[in-house]
Write a structure and sequence with these properties.
This protein is mostly helical and 120 residues long. It is 54% helix and 12% strand.
Amino acid sequence: MVEIFRALSEENRLRILSLLLEGEMCVCEIEAVLNLSQSNASRHLTALKQCGILDSFKKAQWTYYRINDQFKQENAKLLGYLQDGLKELPTYQADQEAYKKYDSQNLCDCITPQQGLKKL
C-alpha cells in the first residue's frame, strides 16, 4: 500500500493516470499529450508499473500502458476516488483536450514532443 501512495504522490504520475483511465496509450502518446521527455515519461511509468497500478505490453516496437486489471479489482474504491479526484487537478482539462486532439492521429509513428508530431 505504501508503494501505491508513494507512486501517486507525484503530479505527473497523476496526470498519466488520468489519461489511462480513458484507455490504453502508447508511451509516445503519453509523452506528446503531457509534453514530457522520453526519459521523464519512462521514469514515471516505471514507478506506476512497479507498484502494480499499470501494466504494459508491446506492439511491434511500441510499448502500451493501461491500468492493471488486478489493481482495478483489488483497489476499486481507491480507483473510484481517483476517477473523481483527478478531475480537480489544475491540468486536467488541458490534458484531456490534448488527449482528444492527439487520439485520432495514431502517434505511434511520432517523434519526440520537443521536435513536434507528424501525422501518419
